[in-house]
Amino acid sequence: MPPRHGKSEGTSRRLPPFLFGRNPAERIQLCSHTSDLSKEMARDVRQIMESDSYREVFHGVGIRVGKRDRDRADLFDISGGGSLKAAGVGTGISGRGFTKGVIDDYLKDRADANSFAVREDVWRWFTSVFRYRQAKDAGILITSTRWHEDDLIGRLKKKIAAGESEPYDILTLPSLATDSPHPDDWRKPGEALWPWFKTAEQHEQTRLLEPRDFAALDQQDPRSEGGTEWPATLFPSSIWFDEWPKDIEAWVIACDPSKGKSSKHGDYSALVAVARDHDGVHWVEADLARRPADVIIAATYELAARLRRELGKVEEGVGFETDGFAELFLPMLRSYERGQAMHLRLHEISHGNVPKTTRIRRLTPLLTAGRLRFRATPSTRLGVRQMEEFPVADHDDFEDSLEMAVRLLNRLYPWGGDR
Question: What does pTM read for this prediction?
Fold first, then answer.
């Protein structure tokens, strides 16, 4: 979760009293980036459990007062046999096993996050100290604002993906909702997590001020130190549209099946439609999905038919990549077309020996000139997200197809302003 959105209040201050109320025999280990902070949270736990309102909810559950409990802020016992131990990440916790282990904000700040030595110390402490203190069937909860892709959560996610760790339930709550929310996140894309505290517009200002920190701290998506190609200022809220404009002069669709030998696992097949108006503004809609070849072809026809209905009788064309495995798609498409009432103007798109990143960078003049607009659909938003993270994103199917579509459009129907 983002900073100041209730992580510590929920997981470090309120959760332990709740767990003790349900089972007074719980042994809870509470850890944060410094011992002082973990002790402060432990004192808050104690204060909650000593309140009248807590006793009204959980009858008979409370602090077992003894000499040790009066003298130590980092350790106290529960009347039902449980205990709470607070410690700083990186410190020794030997002799105190836990049934529930809570790690809350294991890194203090950006300086610690950028230090490989600190990240390594946190990882080694987690694997060789913290995990060895868990009882049979213990539960572990790690809550944090993400600072770095190689932090504790980042390393765990890689281990989980590789099958080298027990699975964790992962809940990510970004400041602004994305197109791939958690099932329990009911927000629509772009909506703020806690609008009473911070509106979507305020989050947008934060993003424009420092995109890298916003991606990490607010969106829980830390990015590579290498940086991205295009600054966030090139993706203002004004780039989005809902309905096609009336003055479209030509449109094309470009398809990247992403079935070649160089494709990465999980790549999308990308259908990108680009419509250009008389002022040279390019209006873009994407259809990104993981699908087999026959479904890609059918989806191409469906998109083209819809564009003919929505944009009227204007110049058009459909291009397919013909490098590598993708060259098989044109014969399949022509075979499919024989059974259709609608016929498409098909064109081959070849890249020659031009590297993909070089081709994608051809979009820069359109971006910087403000001549790209994007339809506010889930697939298109996902594609723009890829652009925002280019060239360090996991996928680049969208911008690859977008460049192909722009190139095909200019080849078939050169714009008067570019002549």
Answer: 0.57
